[in-house]
């Protein structure tokens, strides 16, 4: 007897089902918000600013993620356009979510008078936390999984608990088999990334924007190597040279005993997320270098964050940051100007 999949519906309110997928995404957003508020407090930024940001950014991310996914899967939706709105069945792309959230952030931060790079730096660990938790929604829906593996690989090599192993027994319409838990690989990669970002943001050398760009680099490296394990990748028919380059860079995974998931040649030969990951890594590194060389990244991560719409006197120095303002001790001599124009020590 084969193990049964988890029910994607938690409960129903009347005729309206409440899906695990939506609850998990919401929980991930709240955890990310918690991390952002805690860090924002060090800079004197009110939590209401970040709560409003979530209220605007979360739906923007969902819309962006869905548009991105549907755009590359339009043949599956053109005959049933109403299915475009059924996101509880899965089918969102993380890069689309980031595009939607970033566009929203640019507009919102400008409206509030805050510099984009400073606020997006604060958001970086929270974004990664949301992605880490959100991947468990894919687990419940049995989507974003990898190619076929033996049950012993999951139990004996990865030492996974029964509830994960059982859920990875999937019927994809062609065969029933155990699959790579790619959702778990990406979730763990994100967890390590969060720890690295939390350590990195306390380093004095870090400049404005570099934490966010480091987040993009870290996530994209993981996505590049994990994506080929999947069997549901968005893809296109690309140049054979590009295909050879990407496959060559993926070779270390073969040395570790991994094999790429099946990709229908009629659908494409280059996975979009892999190519996009490479481009993001290169662009992020280039931006870090260019911003430093041109002086655009003068501010450090630990410097105060000042809104152009907030009086400077209301701005707090982040904890642990060096206060460069001149301090006058109670008993220290000060210079005062006398009526006759001569300086006098008091």
UniProtKB/TrEMBL annotation:
Pathway as given in its UniProt record: Protein modification; lipoprotein biosynthesis (diacylglyceryl transfer)
The yes or no answer to whether the keyword Membrane is present is: yes
**Predominant location of this chain?**
membrane
Keywords of the record, alphabetical order, are: Cell membrane, Membrane, Transferase, Transmembrane, Transmembrane helix
Q: Which residues span the membrane?
A: 20-37, 49-72, 92-109, 116-134, 183-201, 208-226, 272-290
The record's subcellular locations are: Cell membrane
Annotated membrane topology is: Multi-pass membrane protein
**Quick one: a GO biological-process term for this protein?**
lipoprotein biosynthetic process
Q: Where is this region: Disordered?
A: 308-346
Q: Which domain of life is it from?
A: Bacteria
Family statement: Belongs to the Lgt family.
| Name of the protein described by the UniProt record | Phosphatidylglycerol--prolipoprotein diacylglyceryl transferase
Species source reads Paenibacillus wynnii
Gene assigned in the entry: lgt
């Amino acid at each position: 007897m084969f193990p049964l999949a988890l029910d994607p519906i938690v409960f129903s309110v009347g005729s309206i089902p409440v899906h695990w997928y939506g609850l998990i995404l919401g929980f991930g957003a709240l955890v990310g918000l918690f991390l952002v508020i805690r860090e924002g407090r060090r800079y004197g930024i009110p939590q209401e600013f970040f709560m409003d940001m979530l209220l605007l950014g979360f739906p923007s991310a969902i819309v962006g993620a869905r548009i991105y996914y549907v755009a590359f899967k339009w043949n599956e939706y053109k005959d049933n356009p109403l299915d475009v709105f059924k996101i509880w069945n899965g089918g969102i792309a993380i890069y689309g979510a980031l595009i939607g959230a970033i566009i929203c952030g640019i507009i919102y931060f400008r409206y509030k008078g805050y510099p984009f790079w400073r606020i997006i730096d604060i958001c970086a660990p929270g974004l990664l936390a949301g992605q880490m938790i959100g991947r468990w929604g894919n687990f419940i829906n049995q989507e974003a999984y990898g190619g076929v593996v033996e049950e012993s690989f999951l139990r004996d090599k990865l030492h996974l608990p029964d509830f994960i192993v059982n859920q990875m027994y999937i019927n994809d319409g062609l065969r029933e088999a155990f699959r790579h838990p790619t959702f778990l690989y990406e979730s763990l990669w994100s967890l390590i990334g969060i720890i690295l970002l939390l350590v990195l943001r306390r380093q004095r050398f870090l400049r404005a924007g570099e934490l966010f760009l480091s987040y993009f680099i870290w996530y994209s490296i993981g996505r590049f190597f994990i994506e080929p394990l999947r069997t549901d990748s968005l893809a296109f028919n690309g140049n054979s040279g590009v295909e050879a380059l990407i496959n060559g860079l993926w070779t270390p995974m073969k040395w570790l005993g991994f094999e790429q998931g099946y990709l229908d040649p009629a659908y494409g030969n280059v996975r979009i997320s892999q190519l996009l990951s490479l481009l993001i890594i290169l662009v992020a590194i280039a931006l870090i270098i260019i911003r430093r060389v041109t002086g655009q990244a003068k501010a450090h991560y630990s410097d105060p964050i000042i809104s152009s719409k907030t009086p400077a006197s209301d701005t707090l120095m982040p904890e642990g940051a060096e206060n460069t303002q001149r301090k006058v001790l109670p008993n220290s001599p000060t210079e005062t100007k006398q009526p006759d124009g001569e300086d006098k020590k008091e």
